[in-house]
Amino acid sequence: MKVTLRFAWLLLCLPAMPLFLCAQAQTPATPTTPATGNPPATPAPSATTPATPATPGALPPPRNVLNDTNTGTGLSIEGIYWLTRGNMLLRTGDYNNSGVSSDLDYPGKLDHALGATVIVPASKNGSVRFTYFQTSMTGSTVAPQNLILFGGTEASVGDPLASQAQLANYKLSYDYVTYYWKHKGGDVRLKTLYEMQYTSINTTVEDFQLQTNGTYVVNPLSGTTSIILPTFGLGLDGTVSKYFRWETRASGFGLPHRSKIGDGEADVAVRWGHVELIAGARAYYFRTSRRSAQFNTGAPFGPYVGLRLYWKKK
Fold first, then answer.
1. Is residue 4 part of a domain?
2. Cys-Cys with 92: which of 27, 102, 173, 283 at CB 3.0–4.6 Å?
3. What is the rounded distance in angstroms from the CA atom of residue 243 to the CA atom of residue 284?
């Protein structure tokens, strides 16, 4: 009977065992709940987040901005008077198969050249510049040797010659400000120059041929050589104040046994309102293609003055 009572007691306690074990299992798990509660307590770093204004999509404004005061690139037109020096020559080309020379040093002096420049702004950092000049060389000489010029009748050695050579140059340039430096008075700008040039030399020679009766017969000889070339270069100019500025430019291009062009100038300018007075010096070298019966070469240089009128007063 005692055994049965004990057995019955065990049977009554068995249903309560799961509840006791479950309570024991939940009791050690309670310390971990504060650990998992730490993430919600992280608002402290979020309070410091607004203190760092991170805006990755916005860029700060530039500290240095290109100054557009007295840069010489405004809409303008300029007249140029160039006191040219130097000479022009006619030489025998590679395709002269006559066996007679075409070498002639043009006599006389270069006339002072007249020119013009027109500048049109194309963008904030670029402008289009058109430049033109024309000069001539006139004189008389005696043929140093038998000459054949432009396929005409041969001129004999000793014949009196009267010649005129007209040089004209047209240049279209895009000037772009590639880099600049700031200083107290103004900016110093580095420009890249992309140009297209056309140069022509129109030659007229009168050959006075002596006849047996003592009179002369005029043998006219004429021809034109020309160059069409792209040229590339650099320019450097600076603004000293709203009244003064300076500028230098150099460009050129050439191919072996073909045409060549080299062009350089430097000037200073003084401006009052819409009017600017410019003084400087320029040198220009050219050579037409040797792959012809004759070719021209020359290098006029010298000082020049210019008067420029601006559309806007700046």
1. no
2. 102
3. 29
